[in-house]
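Morning run. Coffee first, then this:
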Amino acid sequence: MSADQTNAVMEERHAQFLRLFLSSERELFRTVAALVPAIEDAEEIVQQTAIALWEKFDLYDPQRPFTPFACGFATNVARQWIASRRRWNSVLERNLADELLRRRDQLRPLMDARLRNLDDCLQKLPDDQRRILDRFYFRRTPIDAIAAEVGRSIDAVYKSLQRIRHALRDCIERASHEDPAQT
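And here it is:
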């Protein structure tokens, strides 16, 4: 095989990995977030998982779904992360990680429905409220920068976030009650 052919095969393999990983990333994050409390730690573990998955991508059988394969890796990386932190060892020693994952799997249909409801409820918010949420939760813009951007005090922005969260919670609850399959 020529160098050009080898490069083309590697590029295709890399593109395949990226497609599969990106389509599974949200589920990977949810799996990891069920085991560790801090978003920053969960993000770090998902990044470590991506590296591990790429290094072991040759083990993946394309005839099988990628997400469960990747979630298995994420669970192992999370366990290693937990084991490396002394204060978290009791989570592993008492099999709490297994219990958390088992309960997460049990609640998955309900949580998936609630996430769909959240998406619908987010679309119903006024643009200015969605912008504040986007800056705070997704872009992680500091609250003082958001306040300056929207021309409000820091306290007013915190209060707005509190009201928006309450409105979203109420909207999700209403949608859940309208769909008996979610209760």
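The CA atoms of residues 120 and 140 lie 22 Å apart. Good start to the day.
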